[in-house]
Fold these 4 entries.
Entry 1:
Amino acid sequence: MSGLPVPQHILSPRSVMAEIMNRSGPVQRDSAWAVPLVVVATGLFYVVAYLFVADEFPFDVGRDIGYRLDVWLDWLKDNLGPLFQAIKDVIVWFLISLEDMMLWFTWPASIAAIALVSWLLVSTRMALFSASSLLLLATFGLWESTVETMALIIVTVTLSIMIAVPLGVWASQSDRLDAVLRPMLDAMQTMPSFVYLVPAIAFFSLGNTPAVLATLIYAVPPAVRLTNLGIRQLPAETLEAADSFGMTRRQMLLKVKIPLAIPTIMAGVNQTTLMALSMVVIASLVGAGGLGLDVNRALGRIEPGNGFLAGLGIVFVAIIIDRITQALTKKQQDALGSE
Amino acid sequence: MSDADGQPALRIRGLYKVFGDADREGLELSRSGQSKDEVQEATGAVVGLRDINIEIAQGELFVVMGLSGCGKSTLVRCINRLIEPSAGEVWIDDREITEMSDDELRETRRRELAMVFQHFGLMPHRTVMDNVALPLEIGGVARRERRERAANALELVGLREWIASMPNQLSGGMKQRVGLARGLAMETPILLMDEPFSALDPVIRRDLQDELLALQSSVQKTIVFITHDLNEAVRVGDRIAIMRDGEIVQLGAPNDVVLNPADAFVREFTQDVRLHGMVTAASIMDTSPEAMTGPTDERYVVREDAVLDELVPAGLSATQPLQVVDGAGELVGVIPLQRLARAMVSDEAAAAIAAE
Ligand SMILES: Nc1ncnc2c1ncn2[C@@H]1O[C@H](COP(=O)(O)OP(=O)(O)OP(=O)(O)O)[C@@H](O)[C@H]1O
Ligand SMILES: [Mg+2]
């Protein structure tokens, strides 16, 4: 007897980190198809341009091409206006409702509720931390900003999960989709956010909506990756047993694979949340309110003290959300144990 | 063991499995008679199974034995196609499993081929009860009935009190019994068992062996049973196949395998078994006409299926060769006392006499 196999389906925090670190470079082996794509596209572009546009070599069309792209974007905006408006309405409605609810609840009651959740899910220490840090923010007059930021994060993360989990599950079932998705996810994470902030404003005008969408672009990839990975790395023995009962692919996915991948999916959600938080200052540039806007404003008015307090607020919110989602992840892991 | 209509429950013909990228080349080399090592040397492909031919009768308990890595698990997985064979046929009754569509295969797995796994393969997110009921859920059994059947199966393996536990709260042996209950609850005509008792203590193991035998005789289950333990094989098996390097090197009834090992490998494999329980009067008796007509001790008549241990008292008091009779009381041979004494000295000697 060589002993039981090491549990594999639950990714340790280390392997999750390794997966995330792995992805920090823009181009890697899994994205290899993107390299020939870029090479071939450049080659084609050059040949076409040489034949029809330029008469010398090498040539330079300058920034013209960038302006052409803008024309397309304008066309999209003019023709898909109602769609963008609908998206905007839904996002704004969610944000406002959430904010109103938390503000109506008043800050003492909200803080008590968050402390209670921290206590139930994490620990007494965490409950004390949540209560005192939020109390501090409220005393500084930052409660409204904190609520706005929390609402922004909650809406963004909810949307991220709604997009990322189905996409990750699908990618886990299709090697082709996986191969197509990887370089796109890499690009989403490495593309400087200002690049997509501009068209986002163009489509949705200043406000919370472009902020949410820009944050989505940045925050969705880790959840897609970890969902995909969590399903792909399940132990062969468990899947084989499930197969021996005569399960269909669908039954396999719903009854075995997704439930077993939940701890890893949760780790992805945790990552997504932290990425979203790291975007709040940038989001305020396109019109999002909250603590990010406070930081931004302090920057403009050269008020380092206020900037520091608002920054501290972001850190507190990040710690609270991180610990709570991590505790949820751990609960799932413990429930599954090591089989 | 043969069934009334003679139709085997499982039939395996010319089955090969070669693992690796060069599986086609490996298969050709293996077909042309090269050994597992030679094929691996030449192509890098691993021969898992080589030209397996077996017929297993309805209600038979067929044991497969062999050293680690000889291909036992590969063989059972080829039966329900968890592993796709590289070549050959597997038939269940008169249908060829290896030719089935995905739908037919799924249906066959649900209704006819339960499997118990060496590494249990429990679902860590489901309770013990829900683990055992899962295959029934897949098979479309109504909730009440499947809970009832699962509870009965868990009762049988002695885990009634653990119904609501999660698998990670159980010991290795308990998990193995959950896997066993899951296979039994499916109530399929055929049960594939990959080292189902390996993690159990001797007491529970013996109990479950008895349960299995009782079940097999009461519902005529056909069982393919893999084990490392020859004593277990001899105890439960109707026939035993011994494998080495993906091939079957000997196939026969338990005492046949133990008393007449086909080669040095099988002999080495079988030398630990307690021969006293295996050597029968029939296997050491002298059937030559001169011995049978010679003087015998009328007071000591033994049946031909009496084992060596039962012959000892007679052997100690007799003064002439013992008479051996068959079920009808007809004299079928005699056992000279000297021969009996030699057989009792050591297992090797007994085996040697049996082989004479
Ligand atoms: N997926 C695979 N890929 C490559 N080789 C494999 C694969 N599965 C099994 N093998 C090889 O096939 C051979 C038989 O393996 P198998 O698991 O059937 O052995 P076993 O008799 O069940 O051993 P054990 O008693 O240790 O369970 C081994 O040489 C193994 O290396
Ligand atoms: Mg095995």
Note: Residues 1-11, 21-28 of chain A have pLDDT under 50 and may be disordered.
Entry 2:
Amino acid sequence: MNNKVQLEQVNIHFGKTHAVRDISMTFPEHSVTAIIGPSGCGKSTLLRSINRMHDLVPSARVTGKILVDDGDIYDRGVDPVAIRRRVGMVFQKPNPFPAMSIYDNVIAGYKLNGRLPREEADEIVESCLKRVALWDEVKDRLKSNAMMLSGGQQQRLCIARTIAVKPEVILMDEPASALDPISTLKIEELIEELKERYTIIIVTHNMQQAARVSDYTAFLYMGDLVECGETKKIFTTPEQKQTEDYITGRFG
Amino acid sequence: MRTSCCTNETETDRAAAAPKSPQPAIAKKLGGDSIFRYLTTFFAFSILAILALMLYEMAGESLPAIREFGWKFVSSKDWDAVQGSFGALPYLYGSVVSSVLALLLATPLSIGAALFITEIAPGRLGSVVAPLVELLAAIPSVIYGLWGVLVMAPWLQSTVQPFLIEHFGFIPLFEGAPYGVSMLAAIFILMIMVVPIITSITREVLLAVPQSQKEAAIALGATRWETIKIAILPYGKSGILGAAILGLGRAIGETMAVTMVIGNAPNISLSLLSPAYTMPSVIANEFAETTSKLHASALMEIGLILMVVTLIVNAMARLLIWSVSGRAKGGAA
Ligand SMILES: Nc1ncnc2c1ncn2[C@@H]1O[C@H](COP(=O)(O)OP(=O)(O)OP(=O)(O)O)[C@@H](O)[C@H]1O
Ligand SMILES: [Mg+2]
């Protein structure tokens, strides 16, 4: 299988804080990779470096190479805006645009490409909402405000908004942590579906979730990559004692 | 660590309050609290009472004019103290036109300035510009007026107005002779005076836009400008509208600077180059030399209209601004 995303000796600093230490790993195409680890170990920091979200933080410094399809996204002359269209992101707390309707939320990113004919927009909205299994729940009220939806529905809407831009990679930072078990299940099923088309990298605190949805798992501890590999292997026969302790909840 | 810090704080508080009374600390604290509450409640209500009393008094004083002219007071443009006929339309017109046009010019300028401070140059430059803008709001309006009449009006008369007349004179807005002091001068002065207010409130509204909203847009591949367009401005929309309306309230009530530059002629002219008059200006100019009871009453009625309008405008603005900061707080919780 192709490696869609590849990290080579990635270090991330915030001022004097060394948040991610010398991480090298690969993310195979059309697979789900889970990043796990205790709070503050640098999971979000690592994830956000893959679509250059750190560009917004003046104190952040990313070194090393992050290759998407063999091109280093931190190379000079690479447009971060173009990178973010290829590498989409779903956040922990659902963040639909509150001033927009459900319909407009879905095409908010797509519309940035330029004018969008009505029929085309309708099509995109329908297909994206169907893919996130939200269509049947909202098809009669597409024009109503996105904030009317439940948290789980809002999160699926945000995923629809992300895939509407047609990214190749989707980053998810604890996408289900603010949701109830049923909504969480729906999101997990959705991730399963999405991996047919996209490469997915998901940060999660939920071990069962990582075991259920991911093909590969990476365990981070205090900014270091302790271990990564096939999820089955990590969860049954981890090589590192630290990994085993964390997964079995015997962490200390 | 944290907890011990907090305990310290309460202890200092109590120590600071202690010397006033010999009673045990807790009882004294309760007593002090409830007295304080009654006192603040009393003050809060007395402010409302004063407001109501003022409205009542003004309405009472206006009564002769209201009885005499009825609705004609606001529809007639005939203001003649000698003949005893009073129609306030020119003042209403002058107030509305000068403040609305000033607002139309000031609002985009202020939004731009606030965006510059919060989004474009949020670092050191922004933190220098922001207090400077606030400083502008503290300048007494007579200074603006003085500058307006000594510097701006002559400049308008010698440069801007002749230019407008020459190139746009065919539009009724720019007809006539260049007087300097004019509706245009008032509009500019008001614009300069409301920009700081609108900017600083818009800035607060923009700062209340959650980071998650900006990130949502950026992660979709939005440029900085697109982020402003799809995430920041829509989120702050009603607050910005509130800021603008607050500016409108300020502009409608502004007296000194406008009186100095508007020319004080009760015209109703489409041309922005001709002198005009506003409600606060006529009150300020004529209250000291009223010729009759009816004249005084007519001025009082203008004051009443002015007060009711500003109260309504301000209440609307506050509601809009609250709706944004309230939502921001709800979102953060
Ligand atoms: N914008 C920032 N500025 C300064 N330091 C930061 C910033 N973002 C993260 N850090 C620091 O980087 C380290 C890693 O944080 P990160 O958010 O990546 O942790 P995490 O693994 O995602 O934790 P959690 O599971 O709680 O979300 C922390 O020490 C944090 O304080
Ligand atoms: Mg995190």
Note: Residues 2-69 of chain B form one domain.
Entry 3:
Amino acid sequence: MYLKHLSLTNFRSLTRLDVEFPRRNAPQKAGGVVVLVGSNAQGKTSVLEAIYFLAAFTSFQTHVDRQMVNFHEAKNPLAVTRLAADYQRGRSKHHLEARLILEPTGVNGQRLRKEILLDGVKRHISDVIGHFNAVIFVPQMSQIVEGGPDERRRYLNLALAQAVPSYARVLSEYNQALSQRNALLKALNEKGVGLNMSKGTGGQLEVWDDALARLGSQIILWRIEAVQQIERLASRVHHELTRGTEVLRLAYEPAYDPTKPEIQLGLKLDTVIDRSSFELDEIQSGFLEKLKKVRNEEIARGVTTIGPHRDELRFIVNKVDLGAYGSRGQMRTTLLALKLAEVEWMKERTGEWPVILLDEVMAELDLQRRADLLKYVGESEQVLLTTTDLNLFTPEFVQHAEIWKVQAGVVNKSM
Amino acid sequence: MLLPESIQSLITALERLPGIGPKSASRLAFYLLRASEDVAQDLSVALANLKANTAFCQECFNITEAGRERCEVCESPKRDGAVVCVVEEALDVLALERTGGYQGKYHVLQGVLSPIEGIGPDDLKIKELVARVANGEIKEVILATNPSMEGDATALYLQTQLKQYGVHVTRLARGLPMGGDLEYADQNTLLRALSGRQEMS
Ligand SMILES: Nc1ncnc2c1ncn2[C@@H]1O[C@H](COP(=O)(O)OP(=O)(O)OP(=O)(O)O)[C@@H](O)[C@H]1O
Ligand SMILES: [Mg+2]
Ligand SMILES: [Zn+2]
């Protein structure tokens, strides 16, 4: 898939942007590469952020959507940021539009509303995610390895939501059931039900257990499958990047683990468990049973302690956990392998190349890795890179790419 | 500039209504301020009468005129007392009545289970439903709560509560989209959902 046109209004410092994108010329196996070049703080990253937003409906830089609204515009009582793209997916053309609307509430407040329109029709985010796909490479992605488990869940969720139909909807329903269940656990705790089980939960908890297990087991199943597929691709790329010296494994560790405890205990630490044979029913009934077992503890704590919202993903290189013991270089190589695998995985699952966004990644790679990266992404349909320095690229590469200058929020193609 | 107290308090009162944000609340308040005396007068009389002249049916908790013990549906000899359709709100009764395809009676829960909002079984007309079923006349209970997370949870809860009475419990079929409200469903969809109701095992 590829972008044909992007139009931004009041997106960060890009108050007004309208650009046509080149696409890869299939017979010549060339083109479709754009390099955004400019000094610091000119708006290069913002262009990529906007494109990624149309794929994930969230920023890779911030959790606070209103930060993307141009701050001069945000001073108005009613402020609107608009992102619109024309893209081609397979044989069909689509128009995708996102609006971030800051509107006044109460006396002095402002509230942000997101509106998403696909081909002119207002739709729910979870129904539109996956229509336009992009994969982003940024220096801060080392957080996936180094940061807390929530960074890794976020990574998984954003990748799966784009490639697995219904994943976003089921995840959002799971979170809704989780909030309801947590509220009930807290209420039961306050009533002292945990201390005195004879009072009973009145059958209410069972209802939310049921919803949690039904939705949660589906998420676990999708994650088992996806991590296994991504691992297969990532370890192959990693093997090539390290010239065969290192073996990468991805260990998905679901907080509710369908694997029998006897089996888990019998295994050595850092062994990756194969869960591919589990069926949905089996995971669901096991999850439900486990919820019953931990019920007293959960009421005492007033919170749901098991389920996909507590899952973990670990990166293991040559049997060593990268998060704890990895060197910088190992992490960088692993992330590169992971991201390249994500691109290939998305292509396998959806039949379409995602648009590839590379923000400032060349600077932190050595010459060999730069060449490796460009070789891999060169296969795809459309690649956008940012840099402050064109000398990081070989002259041949620069010659075959479109070079766009970014200065003070304005993109200039005339180069 | 501060708004006069009387306007501000109307805006605040309107804002508390579901589906009305601060903007529409101000718009409505200023509309009423500008509109002719009658508009405001009619509205205030209607509001005052709303509570004074309506009551809840003592059998099914649908709305009815004040002074009446039971609603029109419950009073009607033509309705089949062996079938009860359980809905969230009185508006859902209206929607189902409009189809003309249902001959049984109703039970209005007056909400759904939602721990986040602090709504538990005791805040809904659930005990009353169980009592009606325990009486023995009812043979089938159709659970017609909305196809939302909370509507489904409430249906499941009711099913477990009714199990011991050996009554036939069914759930409205998913002709309705998830997250859709009964109230807004078109009649064909509703009729299809009614006729395709499913056994809850
Ligand atoms: N909401 C906003 N409204 C207006 N300007 C913003 C907003 N958010 C960020 N900016 C400005 O945008 C610029 C940053 O843009 P961006 O991060 O895209 O730059 P860049 O070209 O990628 O720079 P670098 O090379 O340093 O990474 C900064 O000058 C920043 O002050
Ligand atoms: Mg940047
Ligand atoms: Zn009645």
Note: Chain B has two domains: 5-51, 78-199.
Entry 4:
Amino acid sequence: MRANAVLPYVLIAPSVLFLAAFFLYPLAQTVALSLSDADGFTFAHYARMAGDLNFKDALVNTFLLVAVVVPLQLIAALGMAQMLTKLRKGRDLVLWVWTIPLGVSDLAAGLVWLALLTDRGYLNSALFALGLIDAPTGWLSYETPVTLFFAIVLAEIWRATAIVLVILVAGLGLVPKEYDEAAQIFGATPWQRFTKITLPLLKPSIQTALTLRTVLAFEVFAVVFALGGTSFPVLVGEAYIWQFQNQNYAVASAYAVLVMAISLGATVFYLRVLRTPPEARG
Amino acid sequence: MAGIVIDGIRKSFGAVHALEEVNLAVADGEFVALLGPSGCGKTTLLRIVAGLETRSGGRVTIGTRDVSDLPPRERGLAMVFQNYAVFPHMTVFENIAFGLRMAKADRARIDAQVARAAGLMHIEHLLGRYPGQLSGGQRQRVAVARALAVEPAVLLMDEPLSNLDALLRMEMRAELKAVLREAGTTTIYVTHDQTEAMGLADRIAVMHGGRIEQIAPPMEVYRTPATTFVGGFVGAPPMNFVKTLAADGKVRLGGLELPCPIASGEILLGLRAEDLAPVGADSGFPFAVRVVEPLGAHILLTGETAGQTLRVVLPPEHEPRAGQTVHLAPIAGRWRWMAADSGKAIAT
Ligand SMILES: Nc1ncnc2c1ncn2[C@@H]1O[C@H](COP(=O)(O)OP(=O)(O)O)[C@@H](O)[C@H]1O
Ligand SMILES: [Mg+2]
């Protein structure tokens, strides 16, 4: 009896210790760094962060990116997952091809899209060859914020939709097909089956996918830097600049803590909004 | 309005032939039970009629429409699934109302129909709950109520009462029968329980190994089974089949002599357990009683005749002891001849 009660904690202990050593401790350190200076406790670093020229742009840009990218990714992944279920053969092959971008690092993905979209890139060459443009056109500079934004959105969607897709496909596999069949029998159209049966039953998976994707989207950095350099400030990019260019670790820590707080907020938001009460689970 | 014609339906899952040439015509308002052991293809046939399963051949007609290639929702039917398929994210009320909502019924009609269907299934008190808070039997009744609520012209039910305890099952059975008869609902009712099939159906289709072996009213299936399988599957205890030898168009079994449809050779004599009565030694066959089971309304005897096991049901006033030998003869006309090789009934 006693041994059984203790055993689970013993088994969990290594992972807890690991997390404590390599996550909680640095985290505490970061928070401490952002809240202190030579004289002790201070909010000065946060004030400096908020007063910085790029801060508001970085904040707005990051939120804008998340607000555009994440919903588009959810919609795309839902559509792709639905298409996969309709396939009779080759599902695994298609899924495999769709998930290839997951294996590409974000910086590499950014560079791929840079090669495509830069003013001497493939797209410019193609449009020029077709006579659709007279001269190579720049889309990725600070003078063209709108096209730069959409280039980043495009690259992010290409790069990271598959993680949402994989979670949704796994979730769909757990939903017995009888529910959809019953809906068909009782007169639901394909759209009604999707909105009234598939979506609600997929809610736990959607919650997981959105949480994961949103948290990662708030940390967007490498793709942005590869495509736009510093023309499109984002929060993690600012942390990077403060850390390595300005060598001000405290303000960099403040940025890091801010990103973490936002991620935490997003997680709590999804946990509440997409909650499935235990009695309504399948 | 809406009879069902199943015409030459075939179905293979890869190398498995689940259905081979099934033909079945259900008249408008008729109640047909599909009866057969597990794995004989009942669910597959029902799903093909519903449009949920593709078919390898044949056609399905409902009313005057060939529905073979229509999606389920255009076939105008309701169904009770073997594993309920009650939506877990909806309350019982929302589940029962689902079909009506899809049909854009108005509020008043939805409320009235849900109340009626829930009342029939005795689940009015559960309307606000989620399926996760219900027992298997309660979920099953929600599934039936959901189908009844849309007042379908055609109703397909796949073992809809299998998860209820015996008493509730008997009660629900009677109510279902009354409701469906009153509404004139054309019904195919899948079950592996022969009592249920006998009690409910206008006609029973007995399935075995992907084919229908006999379609007939319950008493006809019981009295004159078309095959030894049907005789053995329908009725408890199963029909006795005594292997006998015909000579000169007659079969002799002890003191019993019966005219038989073949001149000579092996033939099976089919005898229902309760169609045998004790007689004198000169006119009956000997039956060595091995086990006596008094069951209240009657007694069940297990014993042997000519080295073959027989089961016999007698009224309770007879009480032979184990080890005794009694002489038995069939009641006039209550026997059936079956071919020894094919197991098919031979017309007399
Ligand atoms: N989706 C399927 N894939 C392969 N074989 C199946 C499938 N569904 C049913 N079968 C097979 O078809 C036969 C009939 O099954 P089923 O219709 O479920 O029988 P029943 O409802 O009478 O128990 C069984 O041998 C079963 O294994
Ligand atoms: Mg079945």
Note: The mean pLDDT of chain A is 92.
